[in-house]
Amino acid sequence: MPLSLRRALALACTAAVCLTSLSSRASGLSVVEMLESYKTGKFTAVVAELEGDIDFKDLLKQLQDQGPAWIEAGGPDDRDRRELVAATFALEAARADEWREWKFVWKQPPICGPDETHAGCIQPLSVLEWKAPPLLIEWACRRFRKDEKPRPIERWWQLAALAVAQRSEDGQFLVGDTSIGLGVDAGEILNPKLEIKHLEHVRKRFPEEARFMLAEGIARDRFWQDDATQAYGALANDPVVGGEAMMRMGVMLVQMGRREDALTHFDRAEFLTRDRYVIYLVKYFRGRIAESQRRNVEALDAYRGAVAAWPRAQSATLALASLLFQSGRRAEAQELAAAMLEANPRPADPWREYVHADNRFWPLLVGKLRAEILK
What we know:
Layout: H1 3-27, H2 31-39, H3 43-50, H4 56-72, H5 79-97, E1 103-106, E2 127-130, H6 132-145, H7 152-167, H8 171-175, H9 198-205, H10 210-220, H11 225-233, H12 242-255, H13 259-272, H14 276-292, H15 296-309, H16 314-326, H17 330-342, H18 362-373
Antiparallel strand pairs: 1-2
Helix pairs in contact: 4-5, 4-6, 5-6, 5-7, 5-18, 6-7, 7-18, 10-11, 11-12, 12-13, 12-14, 13-14, 14-15, 15-16, 16-17
């Protein structure tokens, strides 16, 4: 038998074994068992299982089919707690799968005339297909929306849901098609009825929640800067999120080339907040602006401020070390870089995590939900 044929057969057999193994594990999935485990506080074990070989499409279907009965099985006295268990489990599952799959936007084949020449072809808009993670969030959110008045714990759940959604880096789930009006090449979709627009119904339930207002701007600032400007501007004096809104407005202006306007917003951000995440980003971008204008002394001061706010964060540490090295202060530069590399655990970098927004609050938020489940 030729070597190439033997290799092909071996690969085919290996693939068959893998598919059989995956199929057997998927068929053994029991959402009801996972819900029971989660209800009793086995959070770490459930999350570990979700991070294994899971068919999330099957998980979603089981939750849709069996979840309502499981919620009602505890009777009226336990219904609210069980609903919170199922909703929080849905968030955990969505978070476990969201970086593997979130949505597909299918580009359709062109529609051509009888002569099949491309000159007479029409290119239809793309078709949106949501995958399991956003549908898990929406399933749970729809359960909460059945209550005319939100329960206090729903606010915490919605904040956690926002953290998961922002981690996906998909503004469309939150506010709708971000390519609307831009045509097929930009990814504009044909089936807007499938839009979820999560923030639209969340804002109706929590119209005064500042973080949901801020999320409106965050979802838009890469696509619709005018709309983002309005959202951020409306929060310019907010005592809770005003600093972050002004910082994000400033970063957006930097990316638009409006550096002097950005600095004005950074001034406002520092006046409004003591949030070290916001302070870090303000200082870091002050440093980048100063460095781009060859004002290296100011850049050094700004980068030092950023590192002081968030020690060993990669972006500002490396920027500071690079400037120090260029100025001949190589020992100090090497010491900074070495301390950053030796940090264990290495701290999250606010700039690298910038696009994930409220994901930084996930440990706190899921902790609140888990504590409520165990009461």
